[in-house]
Specification:
This is BTB domain-containing protein. It holds the Pfam family BTB. The protein has 336 residues and is mainly alpha-helical. Among the domains are: 96 residues, 2-Layer Sandwich (Potassium Channel Kv1.1, Chain A); 122 residues, no CATH class. 53% of the residues lie in helices and 4% in strands. The chain has 16 helices and 3 strands. Strands 2-1-3 form a 3-stranded mixed beta sheet. Helix 4 packs antiparallel against helix 5 and helix 7 packs antiparallel against helix 8. The structure holds zinc ion. The site of zinc ion has 10 residues, from helix 11 and helix 12. The site of zinc ion (ZN) has 10 residues, from helix 11 and helix 12.
Length: 336
């Protein structure tokens, strides 16, 4: 292996071991003054930017020609970032990341050094990470900035769900937000609003448009009250629009619990257009805030089948409404 550009020892290196090779002919010095002894040929093959840096004046000229110490090139990246980049260049263990900020920093460097394969690998890392959901908006902004289509598509759903105004200051203070325009933000808000509207319509059609055929305590009380009122009116005066059906299965009245649930569901959808409005806490809140003594029965009894069907249909509602957004823009309409 003498003369090989690759290290003799191929053992797995701990993630924080800085890559350095005794036979390296170039020293890359990071911003935190760590030195990586590497091979010019390898770096030149990996990035044309490195090629330019090595061949031009960036290589430290202060080293005497007779010195056995390799020439040095200073980089603005930290040792963590350089170590990660070198791990993509050499056939060693790939870097491991413990925070999204670390991935972002390496992405920035990969972009600077025109290392497309590193960017592609980092895209795959993010696609398989929990950051996709937990930090969806930031991941979407990154994908958008670096034109990573697969990541952009995968993170769109999570970005649409997350309103940038709900983020904490430290979440806002990211480098990528500077590349995120106000129009891009309103486009996401339009998608969120459009999806919330579609979910609301679905709930209306599937859950409330079909009569339950059940009369609860508050509907019975309402009917009795109206009957009493009508009975007290002089003959021929029917009290405006009040109508009391003789049908025990009358469905023109809605239980208070259902009205409460509908309001809470709509509020929840406007906050997060991907929320599960049929979750127990929301249903129980609606039941408890209703005066109807049958609220739990009204909201929970015989609903499972319908709810399963609605959830399934909700999953099919898209997260992107590009055509509608462009039409709204063309019409100069108020979009949210
Ligand atoms: Zn009721």
């Amino acid at each position: 292996m003498q003369g090989s550009i690759f290290p003799v020892r191929r053992a797995r290196l701990p993630e924080y071991t800085l890559l350095t090779f005794p036979d390296g002919d170039l020293i890359v010095k990071s911003s935190d003054k760590k030195e990586f002894r590497v091979h010019k040929k390898v770096l030149c093959l990996a990035s044309e930017i490195f090629t330019g840096m090595i061949s031009l004046d960036d290589v430290n000229p202060s080293v005497p020609l007779e010195s056995t110490r390799p020439a040095t090139v200073d980089v603005t990246e930290s040792s963590f970032i350089m170590n990660a980049l070198l791990r993509y260049i050499y056939p060693v263990e790939r870097p491991r990341f413990s925070a999204l900020d670390q991935i972002v920093a390496v992405m920035m460097a990969a972009d600077k050094y025109l290392m497309g394969h590193v960017m592609k690998d980092l895209e795959d890392v993010l696609l398989g990470s929990t950051y996709l959901e937990a930090d969806g908006l930031r991941v979407y902004m990154l994908a958008h900035h670096f034109s990573l289509k697969k990541l952009e598509d995968a993170s769109l759903k999570h970005a649409v769900r997350k309103d940038v105004l709900s983020l904490r200051p430290e979440q806002i203070a990211t480098a990528e937000i500077t590349h995120f325009s106000l129009e891009a933000y309103y486009r996401l808000r339009f998608f969120a609003w459009k999806r919330a509207m579609r979910c609301e319509t679905l709930i209306e059609e599937e859950l409330f448009a079909t009569p339950t055929g059940k009369i609860c305590e508050c509907i019975t009380a309402s009917r009795e009250s109206d009957s009493k009122y009508l009975a007290e009116q002089p003959e021929g005066d029917w009290g405006g629009d009040i109508y009391v059906s003789d049908d025990e299965n009358e469905t023109s009245r809605t239980c208070e619990a259902v009205v409460k649930f509908r309001l809470l569901a709509y509020e929840a959808l406007m906050e997060d257009c991907g929320t599960d409005v049929f979750r127990n806490d929301l249903m129980l809140k609606a039941a408890k805030s209703s005066k109807c003594r049958d609220s739990l029965r009204t909201l929970f009894e015989d609903r499972d089948q319908k709810i399963t069907k609605i959830r399934w249909k909700m999953d099919k509602i898209p997260w992107e409404f590009e055509k509608e957004y462009l039409e709204a823009k063309k019409c100069n309409a108020t979009i949210i």
